[in-house]
């Protein structure tokens, strides 16, 4: 399990990855929350806020965003990001989310918290005065990786940042009779150049010369495993929300 020091060391790289992402998930999540909860006077607690990807649009949609993270460097980058976009309606707190006080905000928002489990949901729900919202990536399907897996009869490699089973478990826990529960999925397709040789290490198994030649023959023009191909990756995110 990564520690706060690990995340501090990784903060700059993580922030760069977030900034370079071409998926508009933070905008779509914020627009959906505004649709579900049109309460511009609310305070939002962005728990495990990372480098501020979601905090920025949330600070536009709502009165105040209280960002918390246990990694100091992450919060410093998040603050720089919001200030660079002329946002002033935010606070930062260096803290493990488990140490936050109950009733910290009207809406408690969490996205892609790696350590989150269903057992944490009562504690997370106790943090809010009104609503909890959790966003998770639940699918990532790369067309070239899928083609290789099918050709070699291999399992498609697991994507560490995808949590479909956790999302399903959260739904079972939160979607109870009498509780105001919302769920929405967001789907995106992104095409980018990728070579066959680039994806083979993802499988973590030796690929023989004959297998490589067969793959190159079937999947690439000119039977060249290094030629760049236009490859589509499909992404799915699941946003769930419920009242306290």
Automatic annotation (TrEMBL):
It comes from the Bacteria. Residues 44-131 form the Methyltransferase domain. InterPro entries: Methyltransf_25 (IPR041698), SAM-dependent_MTases_sf (IPR029063). This is Methyltransferase domain-containing protein. It comes from Lacticaseibacillus nasuensis JCM 17158.
């Amino acid at each position: 399990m990564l520690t706060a020091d690990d995340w501090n060391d990784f903060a700059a790289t993580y922030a760069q990855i977030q900034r370079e992402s071409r998926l508009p998930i933070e905008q779509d999540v914020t627009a959906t929350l505004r649709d579900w909860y049109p309460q511009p006077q609310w305070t939002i607690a962005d728990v495990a806020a990372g480098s501020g990807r979601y905090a920025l649009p949330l600070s536009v949609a709502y009165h105040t965003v209280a960002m918390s993270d246990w990694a100091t460097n992450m919060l410093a980058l998040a603050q720089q990001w919001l200030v660079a976009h002329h946002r002033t309606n935010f606070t930062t707190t260096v803290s493990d989310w488990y140490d936050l006080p109950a009733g910290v905000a009207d809406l408690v928002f969490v996205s892609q918290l790696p350590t989150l489990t269903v057992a944490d949901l009562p504690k997370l729900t106790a943090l809010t005065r009104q609503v909890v919202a959790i966003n998770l990536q639940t699918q990532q399907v790369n067309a070239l990786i899928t083609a290789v897996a099918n050709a070699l009869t291999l399992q498609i490699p697991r994507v560490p940042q995808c949590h479909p089973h956790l999302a399903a478990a959260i739904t079972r826990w939160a979607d109870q009779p009498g509780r105001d529960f919302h769920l929405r999925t967001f789907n995106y397709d992104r095409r980018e150049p990728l070579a066959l040789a680039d994806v083979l290490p993802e499988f973590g198994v030796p690929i023989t010369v004959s297998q490589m030649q067969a793959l190159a023959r079937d999947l690439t023009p000119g039977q060249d495993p290094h030629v760049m191909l236009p490859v589509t990756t499909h992404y799915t995110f699941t946003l769930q929300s419920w009242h306290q």
